[in-house]
Amino acid sequence: MAEINTDNLDEKQVQLLAEMCILIDVDDRKIGADTKKNCHLNANIDKGLLHRAFSVFIFNKEDKLLLQQRSDAKITFPGCYTNTCCSHPLHTASEMEEPEAIGVRKAAQRRLQAELGIPVEQVTPEEMTYLTRIHYKAQSDGVWGEHEIDYILFLQKEVDLSPDPNEIKSHCYVTQEELKEMLVKAKRKELDITPWFILIAETFLFQWWDNLQNLEEFKDHDHIHRMSDES
């Protein structure tokens, strides 16, 4: 595996690089485990290293979507706006449980508390709707990047927020029109948005958003959507 010096990176974020991610093949079958660090090095990604991840979208009662701006301490895509929470399940028995993606949903509950301070009882796995999976690859810089099969999780609920500033620089609720304005600004390089969020926003997001009360018909657990030119 590639080696890289992390001395110039945020100490807390470097500690998280030791977490063990779930390695998978292109059909999302478990094939092993490796550190978050190794999973996010472009040198390894270029050799095909792929891990399991998730993206959570939380909407309030007014149908507004909760966005976060990643902190400047983040190793990949610092300062970028993105959906509510993006992370990965760990290589543990609990978070590797596969029926109805319950392990991934447990991981999402854990990270929603860690990043946004949402009490675990407000975001139970049972309340999350697992919609589908996307496969994408993206470089953050010359060293770090992402290569994931990403489980898309939706939840509509009022939640209490107490974000960790080491994880999140800012947060806001947006309407569809406000997000569309942000996407235009991103194209003009006036703000930065994570590549996976742009991919989802340019394909499925607004149709799902229009049907928050009727998501059942949009569930697709059989297909993995290949959404990167590099996938």
UniProtKB/TrEMBL annotation:
Molecular function GO terms recorded: isopentenyl-diphosphate delta-isomerase activity; metal ion binding
The keyword Cell membrane belongs to this UniProt entry's keyword annotation: no
Keyword set includes Metal-binding: yes
GO CC terms of this entry: cytoplasm
Reactions the enzyme catalyzes: isopentenyl diphosphate = dimethylallyl diphosphate
Transmembrane segments: none
Pfam families: NUDIX
Broadest EC class assigned to this enzyme: isomerase
Keyword line: Cholesterol biosynthesis, Cholesterol metabolism, Isomerase, Isoprene biosynthesis, Lipid biosynthesis, Lipid metabolism, Magnesium, Metal-binding, Steroid biosynthesis, Steroid metabolism, Sterol biosynthesis, Sterol metabolism
Required cofactor(s): Mg(2+)
Pathway involvement of the protein, from the record: Isoprenoid biosynthesis; dimethylallyl diphosphate biosynthesis; dimethylallyl diphosphate from isopentenyl diphosphate: step 1/1
Superkingdom of the source species: Eukaryota
GO biological process, one term: cholesterol biosynthetic process
Enzyme Commission numbers on file: 5.3.3.2
Gene3D superfamilies: Nucleoside Triphosphate Pyrophosphohydrolase
Residue stretches making up the Nudix hydrolase domain: 49-199
Function: Catalyzes the 1,3-allylic rearrangement of the homoallylic substrate isopentenyl (IPP) to its highly electrophilic allylic isomer, dimethylallyl diphosphate (DMAPP).
Record family assignment: Belongs to the IPP isomerase type 1 family.
Protein name: isopentenyl-diphosphate Delta-isomerase
Upper classification of the organism: Eukaryota, Metazoa, Chordata, Craniata, Vertebrata
